[in-house]
């Protein structure tokens, strides 16, 4: 039987990855941990936060937009540490048909977005290989430097914390699918444009910086594979607590419900880069909400953290997602598009 697609689960991580991590070094303050997307080194008393992600380039978006989308995904895992990304290494394995002009468009956009976010590319590798193909064209490592005390860990949620969510479910899936396959979703012209605009909300770096500047924030996590529900499970499992969510208080962006219904995916378990889940001490919740409101980011106080395990939705125990509901939809639409070209 084929292995499941997407990020490996905790059982796989524990059996195969965790026992085999090379040398033990005293400067590793936080090594690979399931549900925690970054590591931490100590360098002469300063914290160096690192995270590595694939580089996914989707030509149908246009190489300018594809570059900004890809970079924002790479930087998010470091940004949720509470430290702003500062440096980046990039390894690109380019398909042979990725011509020089298209690459120049892609790389200029990548560089411009990095410059806007204060991130410098410091090393890398770029080559064309016969077996390389879109969208997975390499990997990048994001780096941040700062004080150990300023780090916010995704496994830091505590019983009694409030849960704050930005933007809501399926923002990325909605924007991505309607932008890549505009003829597939039976949406009206204006509604289609509204749904496509969600793709421009998939960056989490700026919002993570806003949140981490508020006292009392104990955990920040970006909701990618497995969606908002998957992110809640990851955070709750990592911290050994239960997340109680009131679904009526979760923000929803325009076009998300309609797209999910039209294309047949569950918005709660569909990838939603750009959406943050934040655990914060109740006395500081208003500060987090005000800061995000001031940045123009939709936000809701959606529940609380309690002793226990798992996630409840409106008082009922939820089932942990097994994969991402938008991936089969993407695969089917991509195959159909390929057959038509």
Q: Give Rg in angstroms.
A: 20 Å
CATH architecture of the largest domain: Alpha-Beta Complex
CATH superfamily of the largest domain: PurM-like C-terminal domain
Which CATH class of the largest domain?
A: Alpha Beta
Mean pLDDT level: 94
Q: What's the count of strands?
A: 13
List segments where confidence is low: pLDDT < 50 over at least 5 consecutive residues.
none
CATH topology of the largest domain: Phosphoribosyl-aminoimidazole Synthetase, Chain A, domain 2
What's the number of helices? 10
Strand count, sense and barrel status of the largest sheet are: 7 strands, mixed
Q: What's the N-to-C terminus distance?
A: 31 Å
Q: What does this molecule look like?
A:
The chain is α+β, with helices and mostly antiparallel strands and 341 residues long. The chain folds into two domains: 27-150, 60s Ribosomal Protein L30, Chain: A, CATH 3.30.1330; 162-338, Phosphoribosyl-aminoimidazole Synthetase, Chain A, domain 2. It is 33% helix and 24% strand. It is built from ten helices and 13 strands. It has a seven-stranded mixed sheet with strand order 8-10-7-11-9-12-13, sandwiched between helices. Helix 2 (63-79) runs parallel beside helix 3 (100-116) and helix 4 crosses helix 5. The longest helix is centred in the first third of the chain and has 17 residues, at 63-79. The chain is globular, with a radius of gyration of 20 Å.
């Amino acid at each position: 039987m084929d292995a499941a697609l997407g990020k490996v689960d905790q059982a796989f991580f524990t059996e195969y990855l965790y026992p085999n991590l090379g040398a033990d070094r005293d400067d590793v303050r936080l090594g690979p941990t399931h549900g925690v997307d970054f590591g931490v080194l100590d360098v002469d008393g300063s914290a160096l936060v690192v995270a590595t992600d694939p580089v996914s380039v989707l030509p149908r978006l246009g190489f300018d937009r594809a570059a900004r989308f890809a970079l924002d995904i790479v930087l998010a895992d470091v940004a949720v540490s509470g430290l702003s990304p500062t440096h980046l290494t990039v390894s690109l394995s380019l398909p042979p048909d990725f011509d020089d002009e298209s690459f120049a468009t892609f790389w200029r956009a990548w560089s411009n977005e990095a410059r806007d976010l204060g991130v410098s590319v410091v090393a890398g590798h770029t080559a064309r290989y016969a077996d390389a193909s879109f969208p997975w064209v390499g990997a990048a490592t994001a780096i941040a430097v700062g004080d150990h005390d300023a780090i916010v860990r995704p496994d830091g949620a505590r019983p009694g914390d409030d849960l704050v969510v930005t933007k809501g479910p399926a923002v990325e899936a909605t924007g991505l699918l309607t932008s890549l396959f505009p003829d597939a979703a039976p949406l009206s012209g204006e509604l289609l444009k509204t749904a496509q605009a969600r793709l421009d909300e998939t960056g989490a770096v700026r919002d993570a910086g806003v949140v981490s500047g508020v006292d009392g924030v104990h955990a920040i996590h970006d909701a990618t594979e497995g969606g908002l529900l998957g992110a809640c499970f990851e955070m709750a499992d990592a911290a050994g607590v239960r997340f109680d969510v009131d679904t009526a208080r979760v923000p929803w962006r325009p076009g998300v419900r309609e797209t999910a219904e039209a294309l047949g995916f569950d918005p709660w378990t569909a990838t939603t880069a750009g959406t943050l889940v934040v655990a914060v001490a109740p006395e500081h919740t208003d500060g987090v909400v005000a800061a995000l409101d001031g940045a123009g980011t939709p936000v809701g106080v959606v529940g609380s953290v309690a002793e226990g395990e798992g996630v409840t939705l409106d008082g009922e125990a939820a089932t942990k997602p097994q994969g991402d509901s938008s991936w089969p939809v993407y695969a089917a639409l991509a195959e159909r598009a390929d057959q038509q070209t």
